[in-house]
Design brief:
single chain, 384 residues, alpha/beta, Rossmann fold, Rna Polymerase Sigma Factor, Chain: A, 7-stranded parallel beta sheet, binds NADPH dihydro-nicotinamide-adenine-dinucleotide phosphate, binds magnesium ion
Length: 384
C-alpha cells in the first residue's frame, strides 16, 4: 500500500490517475487531492477516495468546499499556500498534474520532500529548468515522467548508458491541424483546436498540441530530463500516436515504446515503477492499425518547435518567458480574443525583447514568469 497525492486531481490527468487507483484500491491510500475551480468534483473525489485533505487553489471557493465535505471528516483548505502545504504532506508518490506554471511551487514543494514525483506538469519543468533538476538531485527525489513521450524515452533508456545515445526522437501527432494550409490556420477556432484526433486532454494542452507548442515544451522538458545534449534531440510527426518516442543508440539499435493513445498507460508506468500494474486499456492490435507513418515536421506552418529549440539553446530565462507568453496567448485564443496563428507570434514577439536575468531559485523563476506574462499581455493587445 503506497500513499498518493494528486495535485490537479480534477483535471484530465487527475481523472486518469484516479481511474487507475479506483481499480487498485488495495494499492494506494490517498493523502491530498487538489483542484482549482471545480469544487463539486473535488469534494466528490475526496469522499470517494477518502482523502486526508482536499485543497482548492481558488481560495474564494473554500466555503463551498467546506460545505460539500461537511460531516466527512476530510480536512479542507484553500489558496496557493494551502496547495504547497498539501504537497508537503508525506506521500510516497505525488502526481504533479496542475496545468501551467501555477503548478510550479506545489511541484517544487513535493520535490523537496525527497520521495517520488510523477510529473505531468511540463510547464513547471520548462520554466524552472535547472532550478528544478538541481532540487531533484539535492533532495534525492525520484522524478518519473508521465508525459507519454518522456515516459516512453525513460523506458527506452532503462538499463542503458546515456553516453551511447545517438538520437532521442520525440514523436508528435501533429495535432488536429497538421494537414491544414497556412491560410486556413488563421481561421482555426477554439472548438476546432481542442478537438484532438487521438488524445482526450485538457483545453490548454489541446491548443498547445494544435500549435505544436506542446512539442516545443516537450523538447525543453526532454532536454532537462535526459541530459544527452540538445543536438541529440529531434522531433518527428507520427499521426497515429502509437509509437510514443524512440531512442537510437550508437550501434544503430533504435528502441521505441508503443501503446494505445491513453494516458493511463504512462501514468500506470509511473505509479507502479519499477514494477508494473494492470490497466483497463485494450491490448495494442497492430494488425488492425495496419500502418504507422512518419514525416518531418513543418516549422514554417508550425514555428513553435523552432522557438522552443532557440529558447532552450539560448538558455537562461528564455524557456520560462516562452512558457509564460504561451500561457497568456493560449488563454486569449480560447476566450476568442486573438486568432490561432497569433499565439506563437505573441510568444516570438515577447522572446525578442531583452530577456530577464537567468533565474537561480524558485522565487526568481516565478518573478520571470510574472514579468513575461505582463509583457505578453502588452504584446497580445498589439496582435488583436
Ligand atoms: P486540465 O485542464 O484537465 O486539468 C488541470 C488541473 O489543474 C485541474 O485539476 C485544475 O483544477 C488545476 N488547475 C488549473 N489552474 C490551476 C491553478 N491556477 N492553481 C491550481 N490548480 C489549477 O489539464 P490536463 O490534466 O490535461 O493537464 C495537466 C498537466 O498535465 C498539464 O501540464 C499538461 O501539459 C500535462 N499533460 C497532460 C496530458 C493529457 O493527456 N491531459 C498529457 C501529457 C501531459 P480545476 O479543474 O478544478 O479548475
Ligand atoms: Mg506528451
Amino acid at each position: 500500500m503506497r500513499t498518493l497525492t494528486i495535485l490537479g486531481a480534477t483535471g484530465s490527468i487527475g481523472a486518469s490517475t484516479l481511474d487507475l487507483v479506483r481499480r487498485n484500491r488495495d494499492g494506494f491510500r490517498v493523502v491530498a487531492l487538489t483542484g482549482h475551480s471545480n469544487v463539486t468534483v473535488l469534494a466528490a473525489l475526496a469522499r470517494e477516495f477518502d482523502a486526508e485533505i482536499a485543497v482548492v487553489g481558488d481560495e474564494a471557493r473554500l466555503p463551498e468546499l467546506r460545505d460539500a465535505l461537511a460531516g466527512s471528516g476530510i480536512a479542507s483548505a484553500g489558496g496557493e499556500a494551502a496547495l504547497i502545504e498539501a504537497a508537503q504532506r508525506p506521500a510516497d508518490v505525488t502526481v504533479a498534474a496542475i496545468v501551467g506554471c501555477a503548478g510550479l511551487a506545489p511541484t517544487m514543494a513535493a520535490i523537496e520532500q525527497g520521495r517520488t514525483v510523477a510529473l505531468a506538469n511540463k510547464e513547471a519543468l520548462v520554466s524552472a529548468g535547472g532550478v528544478m533538476t538541481r532540487a531533484v538531485a539535492q533532495y534525492g527525489t525520484t522524478l518519473l515522467p508521465v508525459d507519454s513521450e518522456h515516459n516512453a524515452i525513460f523506458q527506452c533508456l532503462a538499463g542503458n548508458d546515456p553516453a551511447h545515445v545517438r538520437w532521442i526522437t520525440l514523436t508528435a501527432s501533429g495535432g488536429p491541424f497538421r494537414d491544414w494550409t497556412a491560410e486556413r490556420l488563421h481561421t482555426a477556432t477554439p472548438a476546432e483546436a481542442v478537438r484532438h484526433p487521438n488524445w482526450s486532454m485538457g483545453a490548454k494542452i489541446s491548443v498547445d498540441s494544435a500549435t505544436m507548442m506542446n512539442k516545443g515544451l516537450e523538447f525543453i522538458e526532454a532536454y532537462h530530463l535526459f541530459p544527452v545534449g540538445v543536438e541529440r534531440l529531434r522531433i518527428i510527426i507520427h499521426p497515429q500516436s502509437i509509437v510514443h518516442s524512440m531512442v537510437e543508440y550508437r550501434d544503430g539499435s533504435t528502441l521505441a515504446q508503443l501503446g494505445p493513445s491513453d494516458m493511463r498507460v504512462p501514468i500506470a508506468s509511473a505509479l507502479a515503477w519499477p514494477a508494473r500494474m494492470e490497466t483497463p486499456c485494450e491490448p495494442l492490435d497492430l494488425a488492425a492499425i495496419g500502418t504507422l507513418t512518419f514525416r518531418a515536421p513543418d516549422e514554417l506552418r508550425f514555428p513553435a518547435t523552432r522557438l522552443a529549440r532557440e529558447a532552450v539553446m539560448a538558455g537562461g530565462a528564455l524557456p520560462a518567458v516562452l512558457n509564460a507568453s504561451n500561457e497568456i496567448a493560449v488563454a486569449a485564443f480560447l476566450s476568442g480574443k486573438i486568432a490561432f496563428t497569433r499565439i506563437v507570434q505573441c510568444c516570438e514577439n515577447v522572446l525578442a525583447a531583452t530577456p530577464p536575468a537567468p533565474p537561480q531559485c524558485l522565487d526568481e523563476v516565478i518573478a520571470v514568469d510574472q514579468e513575461a506574462r505582463a509583457k505578453a499581455r502588452v504584446a497580445m493587445e498589439l496582435l488583436i
